[in-house]
Amino acid sequence: MSKRCKYSMVFSTVYNFPGFKIVGLSVMTMLVGMVVIQLGRSKHKVRCPCCNRVVKRFEGSYGRLVRHLDFSGFECYLYFEEYKLHCKCGYRGYEDVGFVRDYSNCTRAYEAYVGRLCDHMSVKEAASFVGLDWKTVKNIDKESIRSALKGLSEVHPVRIGVDEIAYQKGHKYLTVVRDVDHGYVLWVGLDRKKETLNAFFQELGPEKCQLIKVAVMDMWDPFIASVKEYTRADIVFDKFHVAKKVNEALDSIRRHEFRNAGKDEQKEFKKKRFLILLRNENVPPDRRETLNSLLEKNQTLYSAYVLKEQLLSILDEKCYDVAIRRLETWKANVQESGIQEYDKVVKTINNYLYGIHNYFKHGVTNAASEGFNNKIGLIKRRAYGFRDIEYFMLKIIKICGL
Ligand SMILES: [Zn+2]
To answer: Tens of pLDDT along 27-77?
Structure first.
């Protein structure tokens, strides 16, 4: 900016409050440095926030002092008079000055700044940084997220992933719907009931529901029922959900074999859980011998291990027909092995076979990106979710959303 520019012009550009102009500045240097910018009216027309009519009847005016962004290291406040209106439309209340929300002690710009701080630090840290109490900071952040929420009006999901997030030490759940193609969170709901997911589809609207082609999810009947009721999407149970079932069964076999083993053999079992559950191709070379030695000594564990590896390999099969054929062979192998824990896995696979076939058809998984899981972990660690679940949900949308 050129030197000739007048100070007043610089101020009116930097401190632009529509409908108002700067009429005075005062500085206090007592405890903390404070600047108060006094605003006067630049327009005399005041409009009703309800019907936008120019209002001439005022019931009074009230002085407001609100926090604004720091002024060169000084705490900055705005002081202005706000009118209380009585409009022909029936509205009775304060005018809307635009740069401050009703009943707020800060300008919208200041709230946005506090909101940005809360993206990078905990509420407590942000509160101590700006010198406000944490409840105020939390409410500012909540309000700034809420006011920026766009809902589902601008999204057109084609493939969705439905998942749950445990909170309060796994006693309570949130339902999280993600756009699988773009990786962002579309929606978060309280609980994991059919009604929870119904609420998402209702908000999305019937037309967009019909455009959803694929829904990837866990074998969780309430979600399945909801997807069937509202969409024509193919339900997919992805490989990670199936792999989880077979790993749980293998782990249970491992525990059972350990309990029934002799003392010497039990020693071999110690600290091998991770090694047994690990995908064989990922076993480190220096641990292979240890693993093989254990498997050689226990026939049941060996068979169970081989069956696990077979199933995981089938889940990587790219060709639909081959995958389905191999899955049928695997089921026959399980029957032959006589391992009861795996009979349960086969039963589950048979009950949900359509969704596993759909997985082979679409090849889509609900594996949230590592970035997503890290973000959720971070939000949880900052303890947003434990006292104020609404805030936790808003933070998920803000940080993992579009
Ligand atoms: Zn009005």
So the answer is: 988 778 899 999 999 877 888 999 999 998 888 889 999 999 998 889 999
CA of 94 to the centre of ligand 1 (A): 11
Count other C-beta atoms under 10 Å from residue 224's C-beta.
Answer: 21
Class of CATH domain 159-238+366-388: alpha beta
Centre of ligand 1 to C-alpha 85, Å, is 9
Residues with CB under 5 A from ligand 1 (ion): 48, 50-51, 53, 87, 89, 91
CA distances from 235 to 86, 160, 202, 213, 278 (A): 56, 10, 18, 9, 28
Ligand 1 center to 187 CA (angstroms) = 35
Dist CA 40 CA 24 (whole Å) = 9
- Do the beta carbons of residue 157 and residue 209 sit within 8 Å? no
CA of 60 to the centre of ligand 1 (A): 16
Helices 299-315, 285-297: axis angle to 10 degrees equals 130
